[in-house]
Amino acid sequence: MSHEYNEDDPLSKALRPPPDETQTECEARLASEAKAKEMSDIIDEELEKQKLAERKGPKAIKVLLLGQSESGKSTTLKNFQILYEPKAFRSERASWRAVIQLNVVRSIHLILDAITRAQNNAPSTTSRDSLRGPSIGPDLLKLKLRLSPLLQVEQFLTSRLTAVGSGESEPTQLTYSRNFKELAINSTMQWKGAFARLMTGEKESSDDSSDVEPVSDPNDPNDPGNILHACSDDMISLWSNEVVQELLDIQNLRLEEMAGFFLDSLPRVTSPNYIPTDDDILRARLKTLGVTEHRFTITHGASLGRVWKVFDVGGHRSQRAAWVPYFDDMDAIIFLAPISCFDQVLAEDIKVNRLDSVKLWSAIVSNELLKNTNLILFLNKIDIMKAKLAAGIKLSKYVVSYADRPNDFDHTSVYLRKKFAGISKEKSLLPRPFYCHLTSVTDTKSTKYILSNIKDMLMRRNLAESALLT
Ligand SMILES: Nc1nc2c(ncn2[C@@H]2O[C@H](COP(=O)(O)OP(=O)(O)OP(=O)(O)O)[C@@H](O)[C@H]2O)c(=O)[nH]1
Ligand SMILES: [Mg+2]
């Protein structure tokens, strides 16, 4: 087999073999090209078969995940993967390790920033009053200096992830620090496989890599895993330092409630042999860019063989224009509203309260294109909501209409549920049932149960509709 290389076509020119290629090299190259072509033909054939099966078989069930940024859409998608594609989900552990490393470094970065702010006595965006904090002693300053290499790890991991995954660092005006950039990734770019290989030096991902080998190269001092391991004790000292805790408190930085919080698990996640558990992967935070489609085939039960397509979208305001083309032809939308955010301002607009998920919900229920679509509401992050209420944070302070009702979870959740139900009833263009779940999608057990119920409900509706059509 030989290729024609067209001199006028830059791609063809770039692919041209080196002019000084030996006979053996040429044979090896041709053999590898033939193998690649064979693989590509097999994949094409498989895709063609899939398309044909889909055309012949019952229509795929399509579910769109919607909600503001950090509401838990991608985490819900991970639950679908655990349920229907556990093998593939677990084979991606190595890539999630890098994301978790990035999350850890980011939390440390936030603490170091808080110390710098206190040193400069600069006003913080959310400080209750000016920074009359504890004094920062030489020990803490030394710790800060020793942890500075971590900032390079952050840059390294970000550039690696963006290189393979068409990612982008978007400025996210987080409550706690303006202009703090957060890495966002479009997962259609197969960043996971590519990144796992980059991290592990593997050539091909094996079919069952649930027992992926540790990803650090013990001999490479620049390997992020090694740097994190070397800084582990200092990070633990920093996180448990009383002055730091006081500073964070004064600056109203509740790291425990933030996305991608792993500081309570530092010895484990910084160990050289660390492999993320399912729970870790669910808690790992990587912002989504664009819209990605995920296909699952139901492998058991009455709906065996049925294909599901789940669409995950970026929830950041800049991403929302991309949602509309997907409104058509969905069997259901799972809308996530993070009710724990009642006391925070919206990440991307510090003037808007996070509960302005309510506004987004109004826009969705009243949308003309969605008038016949099943809407399923997840009032999410109830674990954080419960912790906040238990800590004495009052809903009525932020949602004035709550007035003097009891500040416990039962009453607040019923109130919020009614609020969302009322909007659905009032604003929907056609009458529609109100499906609502109180969720914590980082809890796989309860989420599995909810997703199974949704699956059954949609299958029943789908069957009923097909029966009506015949
Ligand atoms: N404690 C807790 N954390 C949650 C829950 N749901 C999601 N999270 C965490 O919140 C963070 C954000 O969740 P994502 O699923 O990435 O949010 P998203 O809606 O996909 O956000 P975008 O991609 O920016 O639109 C992640 O670190 C999750 O682990 C929950 O119910 N409880
Ligand atoms: Mg996401």
From TrEMBL:
Keywords: GTP-binding, Magnesium, Metal-binding, Nucleotide-binding, Transducer
BP-aspect Gene Ontology terms: adenylate cyclase-modulating G protein-coupled receptor signaling pathway
Residue numbers binding Mg(2+): T288
SUPFAM superfamilies: P-loop containing nucleoside triphosphate hydrolases (SSF52540), Transducin (alpha subunit), insertion domain (SSF47895)
Residues involved in GTP binding: L282, R283, A284, R285, L286, K287, T288, N380, K381, I382, D383
Nucleotide-binding among keywords: yes
Pfam families hit by this protein: G-alpha (PF00503)
GO cellular component, one term: heterotrimeric G-protein complex
SMART domains: G_alpha
Low complexity bias: start-end ranges: 212-224
InterPro entries hit by this protein: Gprotein_alpha_su, GproteinA_insert, P-loop_NTPase
Segments traversing the membrane: none
Chain positions covered by the region annotation Disordered: 1-28, 200-227
Protein's UniProt name: Guanine nucleotide binding protein, alpha subunit
Species in which this protein is naturally found: Collybia nuda
